[in-house]
Amino acid sequence: MKLEIQNVSKRYQRNRYGLKDFSITIEKGILGLLGPNGAGKSTLLKMIATVNKPSDGIISLNKNNIAKDANYMRKQLGFLPQDFGVYPNLNAYEFLEYMAAMKGIGGPNLKPRIHQLLEGLNLIDTAKKPIGTYSGGMKQRIGIAQALLNSPKIIIFDEPTVGLDPEERVRFRNLISDLANDCIVILSSHIVSDIDTIADQVAVMKNGTLITHGNQENIISNVHDKVYETSIKKEELGTFKLNHIVVSTSRKNENLLVRYITTAPIANSIRQVATLEDAYLYLTKNN
Ligand SMILES: Nc1ncnc2c1ncn2[C@@H]1O[C@H](COP(=O)(O)OP(=O)(O)OP(=O)(O)O)[C@@H](O)[C@H]1O
Ligand SMILES: [Mg+2]
């Protein structure tokens, strides 16, 4: 599997780009797509999923240009859009059967597949209740299930962990790791902890452009000698933030314990082991 995105732009209005001259090549494994709100994540994912067309550039899957042959992509695709909607009066079985029919999936394997997905997503107990009565996290899990109906080879999940509680996040992670054997999986988020434990590769984007792409160690190496901790007075925080990127603060007696990123640490700072969160903050603040 090889997904190539070459110089792709999406222009929404005359001078307004959702994505600008974006290039990346993705091969099998899990790619975490990280970026703040408005970075262009959904714009990119919708074009890969063939629900939106690039204004410029080429997206190809195994050398097939998907603008010319959208079905080649669609047959192998599982997509959870960010704004996925459900039909509230259908129960989980009915909804998944409906989605399967829309996708042209049928046959004797369908019912066992639906059952397997509902089990994998911990929805069996409520599967006979109308989806309208589900919590946000349960609806999200139905959205994940529908994307997996056709045993896709390329799986695109736009903000899949929104609304999932910690236990369901773990379950989701395990499910994705099991799926990822010879597939391409792309997960977007603006929260590092949603992807850092499962992504083989990470791409960081901002303002419609790719800032960096690589494995987690590559990305973390941007800040490996720049993360420190120190203690400052509360009233010093404003000035401190002008000179350094503050990752987090916590109260320590009368003072503040500050984790920060800098090339010029102040006296009495202790260097810390850098994380993907530090690197993400550094890359999106500095670009
Ligand atoms: N249909 C549209 N018409 C005009 N502008 C749009 C449209 N969709 C997105 N945009 C703009 O394109 C940019 C990228 O939006 P996009 O939704 O792709 O970002 P995102 O990274 O998915 O953000 P979020 O984390 O909030 O989901 C934003 O500036 C947004 O306002
Ligand atoms: Mg989005």
Write structural notes for this entry.
This protein has helices at 41-48, 70-76, 92-103, 110-120, 136-147, 166-179, 192-195, 216-220, 237-243, 276-286, and strands at 2-13, 16-27, 29-34, 56-61, 64-65, 77-80, 154-158, 184-189, 201-206, 209-215, 227-233, 245-252, 255-261, 270-271. The chain has 287 residues and is an alpha/beta fold. The protein has two domains: 2-214, P-loop containing nucleotide triphosphate hydrolases (Rossmann fold); 221-286, no CATH class. The chain has a six-stranded mixed beta sheet with strand order 6-7-8-3-9-10, with helices on both faces. It has a four-stranded antiparallel beta sheet with strand order 2-1-4-5, with helices on one face. The chain has a four-stranded antiparallel beta sheet with strand order 12-13-11-14. Helix 3 (92-103) crosses helix 4. The radius of gyration is 21 Å and the shape is globular. The mean pLDDT is 94. Adenosine-5'-triphosphate binds next to strand 2 and helix 1.
In short:
With 287 residues, the chain is of the alpha/beta class.
List the helices and strands and how they pair.
Layout: E1 2-13, E2 16-27, E3 29-34, H1 41-48, E4 56-61, E5 64-65, H2 70-76, E6 77-80, H3 92-103, H4 110-120, H5 136-147, E7 154-158, H6 166-179, E8 184-189, H7 192-195, E9 201-206, E10 209-215, H8 216-220, E11 227-233, H9 237-243, E12 245-252, E13 255-261, E14 270-271, H10 276-286
Parallel strand pairs: 3-8, 3-9, 6-7, 7-8
Antiparallel strand pairs: 1-2, 1-4, 4-5, 9-10, 11-13, 11-14, 12-13
The site of adenosine-5'-triphosphate has 13 residues, from strand 2 and helix 1.
